[in-house]
Amino acid sequence: MAGASGLGTGPGAAGGDGDDSLYPIAVLIDELRNEDVQLRLNSIKKLSTIALALGVERTRSELLPFLTDTIYDEDEVLLALAEQLGNFTGLVGGPDFAHCLLPPLENLATVEETVVRDKAVESLRQISQEHTPVALEAYFVPLVKRLASGDWFTSRTSACGLFSVCYPRASNAVKAEIRQQFRSLCSDDTPMVRRAAASKLGEFAKVLELDSVKSEIVPLFTNLASDEQDSVRLLAVEACVSIAQLLSQDDLETLVMPTLRQAAEDKSWRVRYMVADKFSELQKAMGPKITLNDLIPAFQNLLKDCEAEVRAAAAHKVKELGENLPIEDRETIIMNQILPYIKELVSDTNQHVKSALASVIMGLSTILGKENTIEHLLPLFLAQLKDECPEVRLNIISNLDCVNEVIGIRQLSQSLLPAIVELAEDAKWRVRLAIIEYMPLLAGQLALSEACGQEITTKQMLPIVLKMAGDQVANVRFNVAKSLQKIGPILDTNALQGEVKPVLQKLGQDEDMDVKYFAQEAISVVAQRLRKLDFPVKDSGEPSVPRADKNHFPRPRVPGEDTGKGPVYPLHGDTRDTLAQLEIAELVHFSQSRD
Amino acid sequence: MSSAPTTPPSVDKVDGFSRKSVRKARQKRSQSSSQFRSQGKPIELTPLPLLKDVPSSEQPELFLKKLQQCCVIFDFMDTLSDLKMKEYKRSTLNELVDYITISRGCLTEQTYPEVVRMLVYEFFIRFLESQEFQPSIAKKYIDQKFVLQLLELFDSEDPRERDYLKTVLHRIYGKFLGLRAFIRKQINNIFLRFVYETEHFNGVAELLEILGSIINGFALPLKAEHKQFLVKVLIPLHTVRSLSLFHAQLAYCIVQFLEKDPSLTEPVIRGLMKFWPKTCSQKEVMFLGELEEILDVIEPSQFVKIQEPLFKQIAKCVSSPHFQVAERALYYWNNEYIMSLIEENSNVILPIMFSSLYRISKEHWNPAIVALVYNVLKAFMEMNSTMFDELTATYKSDRQRLEDYLILPLLSYKCHFFRVKINK
């Protein structure tokens, strides 16, 4: 058989008997040795095809050894190979033979290039699930040990990712060995290895027995959290969350909290940042008592940290912190312990801190309730609405709806409307855009909440909206059209006829395609209302066109079909010219009257 | 350590998470130091008399007191605070620098820990260079922890600070033999992290400069540790995006290595070929420059070992549509030594280069390149005219056969067909 000398060279050799069906396979195999990287890459990507054609026997005995030797190849090819091998278990004969995939993957896990290594580790993890427990101990665990004692750091870092997958199904003696190995990696000479170990510490802890967690993982965690490199320490903070979820409250207080307190006051800002960033997870894991006694004070310090990054990270978590507190204590804790610090942050020197705060501060209103919001939070919102940094203003405006619910639209419109009016003329178009997008919601709420809502809408908001129809930025203009369409049902016919319609018609002549399109949609809605024919009148806020945004393509109308609804536009994006629109508007009108 | 405040590094990704602040314009105002925390209340220092005004018996004690005073940190980014005290500190430091440069017998054992704690660069360098300096005493205070912190400072954004640090580390490496292995190892770790994890570190150029003089001082035969450093750390350094910031220093280190041990030429060249830039032309030009520097010092026996992969790559560069790359590659033919090497091995090199050169002479868009290529072809013709003629003839007939096959419809698998045929 021609295949005896390994994979055949040249066409026809792989078949052994000149079988034509194997010829393309031979070509693919040939390409695995081609000089051109692209051809090798294509071939590797079709590796499963080759394996299928060769059958499980020959894949195991010929293809895999061949692949194990192509380790001296371009990283791109190696990456593709690592990925393919992860799915090869079926192609080598099932779980009983999964271990045959280990030699090439072991080589790939020692390669310098990080992405290749990572992919190899990922594939190894996948394959480990498909090993029988016997095979796991016989083949997989020794592989992990070999990697963990490799002399270049790359193999040791790869090993770190494999401990948690082989531990659960190993025997007790082997488990002890695995733990031992992991321990030594946590105190490895090279920071890269320690970092890899620290990042996998949490995952490993989750598969261990509780005793081992307390006796082995916690000391490792404490050591890593006091490593000389801050990059290692900050990864330990991440691990802290996973570990905390496994221990009881008492254990947490004695074993974990001292380290965490240290981390919150670490001299490196990156570690403190990590604490701030993971605060919500820590809060949930540690429970309410520790949160109140330890975490809240730490959080207060983070809010006034000297490094802006840390303050910003902490500011981002304010809302989540409040939401994760027990319901009965929430209000008092936030009012007494967090609010004073937040007030300071509103006038922080760093814009990112203020911006972070602005994105979440509105959420506090649901926690604090109406009175507190009006008395304490409203001044802060107003201050931020007038902030010099546009992102801060933007973040406030974008989140106004949750405040609506709490303090009611009347109060909101009284205190905030003047500021909002000013912002309609903001220098930054995104701020103006946010305002115009918010208008329909505001108007809708006003209309629902009280009788003179329509008056406020017409007298105060409509002028703003109409003025923005002349904005230089097209995005703002087409949103004006959209907003008018939504506000339309709330307004009275005088306003519609006298003010809205002319503006919409002008927008219908705009030079920008999108503006024209939305203006024309809005025109037809408004026109409907004005005609007041026996159409089923839609509720306010819901346009009578079924499509709210131009990306949704409705089913084209079949001739003669009567949908009984409003107009259906069988339009694609580019047939939005005026003529077509008007035609259809006419058709609709006539078809209804035919009925 | 007190020093002029350092600005924290600006990075897009730090340990896996991105700093949002760098997305905005950071240049508007300088960031405050992350190592500096303001004391809050203003600091008062009681002015001490000048050193020259006290009798020499009292000078050591006064010296110590002044060192301790200068450990107090002021925020020099804030131009308005503590003006009087800052002025006092500034003049005291100047006085101390003069004192240590001129006076004798001032470096008693007690002064060492104070100086290390204060760490003002100018002063520290004079301190290290002073004739009175005794490493045996200092090594208690200038230990591994100190070196580690010093290396971390190299990430500073301020080039003056990095320059000072470079000098400091260089002196320390020179005087403390016990720390040398540790320093080399830590620099290794910094570079490995730079290459494989973050691609950010501001002090790579300075560290490479120090390494250049370290490599220069290596004893022969080179230790395995050093060879491993070359292959596993220096060569991969070529892969980072910011290569232009430190390429000169890196190339110098590589050439130094090769001058020490020419047998390393093959791994170096193969490494460069492996990491040859695929999309960044600017980097390609840098690589070509480095390659020429290597070829300048290469031994003929080593040249023979690597000439095939080398000239395959050069052939590709010469035919690059990017004219700077092509030009840089073609300038190799202006180099006398390289020309002599090519001439000696023209029967191997000419076939590799020929088809690219011939094609370019007909097809390249840039006339300057075409002119250079003609010169190269002429040089080859003069070197080895028989081979040249042979190659010309084969090239022409190959082209003819290729055109004949192209008449067939070009479905992809049929491409394999005729390609396989030709290979046979």
UniProtKB/TrEMBL annotation, chain B:
Comp. bias (Basic residues): 20-29
GO biological process, one term: signal transduction
Compositional bias (Low complexity): 30-41
Domain of life the protein comes from: Eukaryota
Classification via InterPro entries: ARM-like (IPR011989), ARM-type_fold (IPR016024), PP2A_B56 (IPR002554)
Pfam families: B56
GO CC aspect terms: cytosol; nucleus; protein phosphatase type 2A complex
Family note: Belongs to the phosphatase 2A regulatory subunit B56 family.
Purpose of the protein: The B regulatory subunit might modulate substrate selectivity and catalytic activity, and also might direct the localization of the catalytic enzyme to a particular subcellular compartment.
Name by which UniProt lists this protein: Serine/threonine-protein phosphatase 2A 56 kDa regulatory subunit
